[in-house]
Amino acid sequence: MTGAIAAEFQPSVVMLELNLLDTSGFEVARLLRGQAQGHDLRLIALTPRREHAGLELPRVAGFERYLLKPVAADELASLFPVTAPEKPIQGTIGAALG
């Protein structure tokens, strides 16, 4: 199911809870990475469990970052910097912006 959802929506970033009920977040990460579009996917691990923090497992599983819950808003915002588009926006809104 996870693979089918990712294939349909083709996300560029997935924030993934490691402590899932039916499987582990590490297994989901492995499945996502195994898909063709999974190689460029940014995986960010989320968990309330501090014992994962010192382990290499999140990095080995392909996670770019490991965040402990609760995540501060500024820490979360730092993962997604806002940049100006390289090309002007097309259409009526783009024309209004200049």
Strand order of the largest sheet: 1-2-3
How would the global form be characterised? Answer: globular
According to CATH, the fold-level topology is: Rossmann fold
Q: Which H/E pattern describes the elements?
A: HEHEHEHH
Q: How many runs of DSSP E, i.e. beta strands?
A: 3
Q: Indicate the proportion of strand residues.
A: 15-25%
Total number of domains: 1
What is the CATH superfamily classification?
Answer: Response regulator
Q: Rounded to an integer, what's the Rg over CA atoms?
A: 17 Å
Helix/strand-derived category reads alpha/beta
Average predicted confidence as pLDDT = 74
Low-confidence stretches: 92-98
End-to-end separation: 44 Å
Question: What is the CATH class?
Answer: Alpha Beta
Count of separate DSSP helical elements: 5
Tell me what the CATH architecture is: 3-Layer(aba) Sandwich
Helix content: 25-40%
